[in-house]
Amino acid sequence: MLHLSEVLGLPVFDANGSRVGRVDDLRVDSHRGAVDVVILKARGGSRAVPWSAVASFSPEHRRVGLVDGAEPSPWNPGEPETLCLKRDVLDRQIIDTQGRKVVRVNDIALEPAGESLLLRRVEVGLAGAVRRLLAGVISPRLLRRLADGLSQQGIPWDYVGMVEPGSARIRLKVHQQLAKMHPADLADILEDLGRVERREIVSALDPETAAQALSEAEPSVQAAVVEGMHVDRAADLLEEMPPDEAADILGDLPEERLHAVLEAMEDEEADDVRELLAFREDSAGGLMTTDFFRGRASWTVGETLATLQKVDEDLIPELDEIPLVDDDGKLFGIVPLVRLVRAPGGRPVTEFMRREVRAVTTSTPFKEVVERFEKYHLRALAVVDEFGDLKGMINIEDVLSRLVKGD
Amino acid sequence: MLRRPLQGLGARLALWIAVLGPGMVTSNVDNDAGGIYTYSVCGARYGYRLLWILLPVTVALVVVQEMCARMGTVTGKGLADLIREEFGLRVTFLLMMLLLLTNLGNAAADFAGLASALEVLGLTRWVSVPLGAIAIWWLIVFGTYRSAERIFLIACLVYFAYPISALLAKPDWTAAVAGTITPSLPVDLSGFAMVVGIVGTTIAPWMQFYLQSSVVETEARISDYRRVRLDVVLGSLVAVVVAFFIVVACAATLHKSGVTQILSGADAAMALAPLAGAAAKYLFAFGLAVASLFAACILPLSTAYSVCEGLGLEAGVNRRFKEAPEFYWLYTGIIVISAGMILMPGVPLLKIILTSQILNGLLLPVVLVFMALLIRRRELMGEYVNGPVYDVVTWGTTLILVGLALAMVVTSFLPEASVGF
After folding, report:
1. Which residues, given as ranges, of chain B have pLDDT below 70?
2. Which residue among B85, B93, B219 places its CB closest to the CB of A220?
3. Are the beta carbons of B376 and B382 closer than 8 angstroms?
């Protein structure tokens, strides 16, 4: 096993034994997870040699030898579409997709396998730090022995999520790995990252995954992320969220930005959000979602269940308690889903409603809403306006998360 | 269109306290034991003559703090993080070790402040220092730091005793104004140390790390940068105004009556006599104890945080001990060592305090160089890079400090000029 810290700075010699420069960086073919170009610091600027032109590579002998006829070509160190280990990975934050946290890279372990030099692990522990600190200060052999005795914390390359993915191909890899993580873990990771890194991650994810992750994050982080994004992209992302959460985030933005994002959103979603934004944040109106399923009081159980089967997947978490409305859109009653499932299909749905209709108005203070939930052991609560028209639903989840975040 | 803000008295109070942002907190910690004693010594020894230093120091403080706040807001990263990413592990490690060393001195200075404050009341340091250390440690590891911070901040109102006392002492305003606007360097060699100490205590290196991390933690956004900047500028001004009145109060009392040496807290307390009369020593002891405890709480925390941040270790009070062992061990170690230093027999408390401020002054130019280099990088700061005026002030401050630091190192090798006051 080799380490990047041992490789950087090694002198490079051509086949005739004359020195052409020092190792400055290693470029990686991220598809194969192997080094494909050695970048040299030579007199007159940076040069690149393909890995296939390297004849011998040994930190123990402190030299890298090139094959006969190898011709280092000029190299632009700012080249964006590549992944270079020193420039893009060393000392940077990466995501440990297995341990689900953000870590900083101290060193990188490489392994020669046949013709190629494979990336094995990213080192984040003390051993890597010591190797970096003492490289070139004490003899490589002594350093190796010293470092081997320290705690080795490595993350296998396959589980490394790059935070600043340069090329489209790396972006794809990031996407695949991150999309597999739980949104709550993704949210924690977002919270640990810097401004630019957050933007990179959010833009590497599809709007749906990004929206899920963002809804799990702290309100201040949500606003910071949305504010840093391009307006159209922010609009795409907010459209994926339940309107109440989107309104919460938008309510924290500066007014100008808020209008710009609303303009960019689809009309239907934007209207929902606008309606919610008019309510006070600490009222039932500010807490409710307007995106929910409502049944009709005139339906039978069978009709209701049949409609439910076609309902959008996003609404599933809201289906424990189903509000019924009359022909004018006024709240008629609440029917629990469980009762419906057990009821004979031909009966009117109103027969299975809860005895009392528990509802609050849009202006009911949050504190009262909480008391209602606690007193009647509710899982969902209907919200009506002053005319009794059903306006929204509050879920126990909404109450819980507001209670937790409101501290 | 926008939601109406919270109403009710409790909510308004919460809002008011929330407005006390990272800038205010940093400045109040800035006037810790080291600050109070350094300014007191300055006033007692040199009267109004060195007041002029506070003018350039104010400019430098505002500029430096604003840069930190801006970097934190734009990048969302702490200063140690940025240094690590841009300058590599080795440089970061060295810098962190220097910071650790300096801050051990600062934390020791704060325990010394606590000890000397309570010695005024007759409480031996063998009781006050261990108790204080345990209380602070417990607060962070088991308690809720945030609520403690509020209490500390409210207790910091005691600093207003200095302006009042200074006014009551009927200072020689002509001399004070003259001292503020006419620069003059004291002829004795320890004057260099005094100047470096004042700069070092007012613009302490730890503050830059602490402030930037705090700004990042509050998730300040570019859109509310004006608010962040206001907080930082006001905080800086408050810090310097308090410093100004400490010097004036000491000049109008101690210096005027011929007391140019401050040997203990009881001496320094005399500056508050015009306000509190015989109770001056209690007022002083209370103020110094609060300031010392507050700073002794934040300094080890901020140091452990910066070091872990720079070295890529898990850190933060919201992590559990198992999740961030290095952070908590470092925090514990700093408290134990700095409190332990004060308990060594025969340790001169005031000398520790003043020396630590000079160490600050020596490390500061190093930190400033890194900051000045970082904030020029367009790939990091985008359109928020330093403008030409800022660049001049930053590099100017840095160069002056490097000059002062060098001058002081040279003079400290001269036989007659030990860093004594």
Report:
1. 1-19, 186-189, 408-409, 411-421
2. B219
3. no
The last residue of a domain, from among A138, A155, A172: A155
Same structural domain for residues A9 and A140?
yes
Query: Which amino acid is residue A210, in one-letter code?
Result: A
Tell whether A328 lies on the interface with B, counting CB pairs under 8 A: no
A251 inside domain = yes
CA-to-CA distance for B276 and B340, rounded, in angstroms?
33
3-state DSSP call for residue A361?
strand
Cβ A238 vs Cβ A265: under 8 Å: yes
Q: Output the DSSP codes for A129-178.
A: HHHHHHBTTB-HHHHHHHHHTS---EEEGGGEEESS--SHHHHHHHHHHH
Chain B nearest-CA distance from A173, in A, is 23
* Domain-embedded: residue A172: no
Q: Are residues A34 and A79 in the same domain?
A: yes
Residue A289 included in any domain = no
Give the separation between CA B24 and CA B22, rounded to whole angstroms: 6
A198 vs B contacts (CB less than 8 Å)? 76
Domain containing A85 equals: 1-155
Residues 268-297 of A with CB under 8 A from B: 277-282, 286
Q: A280 vs B2: CB contact, 8 Å cut-off?
A: no
> Of A121, A155, A189, which marks where a domain is finished?
A155
Give the closest residue to A332 by CA, choosing from A311, A359, A304: A359
- Please name the amino acid found at residue B182: T
Whether residue B89 lies within 8 A of chain A, CB to CB, comes out as yes
Residues A307, A377, single domain; the answer is yes
How many other CB atoms are found less than 10 A from the CB of residue B80? Answer: 26
Q: Is the ipTM of this complex over 0.85?
A: no
DSSP state of B318: T
Chain A positions touching B6 (Cβ under 8 A) are 282
**pLDDT digits 0-9 by tens, A14-55:** 888 888 999 999 998 877 888 989 999 988 889 999 998 888
A162 domain residue, yes or no: no
Q: Can you give the pLDDT at residue A199?
A: 80
Asked whether the beta carbons of A109 and A147 are under 8 A apart, the reply is no
User: Per the structure, how many domains does chain A have?
Assistant: 3
Whether A212 and A130 share a structural domain: no
Question: pLDDT digit string (tens) for A161-176?
Answer: 776 655 445 555 666 6
Q: Parse chain B into domains and list their residue ranges.
A: 24-413
In this structure, the answer to whether residues A114 and A261 fall within a common structural domain is no
Name the CA dihedral angle for B239, B241, B244, B245, rounded to a multiple of 10 degrees. -110
Query: Is residue A257 domain-shared with residue A306, that is, in the same domain?
Result: no
DSSP codes joined into one string, A23-37: EEEEEEETTTTEEEE
For residue A126, the domain's CATH number is 2.30.30.240
* CATH T-level topology, domain B24-413: Amino acid/polyamine transporter I (1.20.1740)
Q: Are residues A310 and A263 in the same domain?
A: no
Helices (H), ranges, B121-224: 125-141, 145-155, 161-168, 173-181, 190-202, 205-217
Which is higher by pLDDT, B404 or A74? Answer: A74
In a 10 Å sphere around its CB, with 0-12 CB exposed, 13-18 middle and 19+ buried, how is residue A95 labelled? Answer: buried
Which residues are paired to A296 by β-bridges?
Answer: A325
Q: Check if the beta carbon of residue B292 is closer than 8 Å to that of residue B338.
A: no
Chain A residues whose CB is inside 8 A of the B222 CB are 227-228
Helices within B205-279 (DSSP H only): 205-217, 225-250, 265-269, 273-276
Contact A323, A353 (CB under 8 A): no
The CATH number of residue A378's host domain is 3.10.580.10
CA distance A45 to A41: 6
pTM of the shown model:
0.81
Q: Does A194 touch chain B (CB under 8 A)?
A: yes
Q: How confident is the model at residue A277 (pLDDT cuts 50, 70, 90)?
A: confident
